[in-house]
Amino acid sequence: MADVRQPSRKRTLAAIIGAAAASSLIGLTASQEGVSLRPYDDVLAHDVQTVCFGDTTVKMRPYTLNECKAMLSDRLADYAEAVRSITPGFDTLTDGQKVAVIDGVYNFGLENYRVSTLRRMYIAKQFPAACQQFYRWRFVAGKDCAIAANRCGGIVTRRNLERAACLGE
Q1: With helix as H, strand as E and coil as C, how does the chain read?
Q2: Cα torsion angle, 83, 105, 91, 120, sign
Q3: pTM of the model
Q4: Residue 4 confidence (pLDDT)
């Protein structure tokens, strides 16, 4: 009898980080990204075309809310797998530590994380000091978002939420 294999299926976010962490991550990311069912130019990101929950990698067209939610879950699963693959010991992290780092990387990028002090501290399990690193990622397009006149205070709010999740608060 021939060996018939099913095509490999992508793992869900819950399968990668656990159901509770997945639910927390989706809630955090969705609340901080906001949703736009139609593409727009993200001014803070130098007018990069963006749609749904901050997605820049899909076809720029109108989407339904359900499509956007499914894309967010899929995209976060991609980020979770990527972060997990370059963070030895990832599976031993608390749910909050996982949520914080995946949300952060979704926002500031995998390549930035790859070369960061944040990643080195996560690998070394230097908590709570690693959690304090999130605040360092408050700059957008060279502007310090802690300065109200720069009009990007949402980034500071997000970093504070990531820090709190990382600390288990």
Answers
A1: CCCCCCCCCCCCHHHHHCHHHHHHHHHHHHHHHCCEEEEEEEHHHCCEEEEECCECCCCCCCCCHHHHHHHHHHHHHHHHHHHHHCCCCHHHCCHHHHHHHHHHHHHHCHHHHHCCHHHHHHHCCCCCHHHHHHHHHCEECCEECCCHHHCCHHHHHHHHHHHHHHHCC
A2: positive
A3: 0.90
A4: 46
The confidence score (pLDDT) of residue 141 equals 85
Q: Where are the domains of the chain?
A: 14-167
- Considering the four listed CATH numbers 1.10.530.40, 3.20.20.80, 3.10.129.10, 1.20.1250.20, the one that applies to the domain covering 14-167 is 1.10.530.40
Residue 3 has pLDDT above 80, yes or no: no
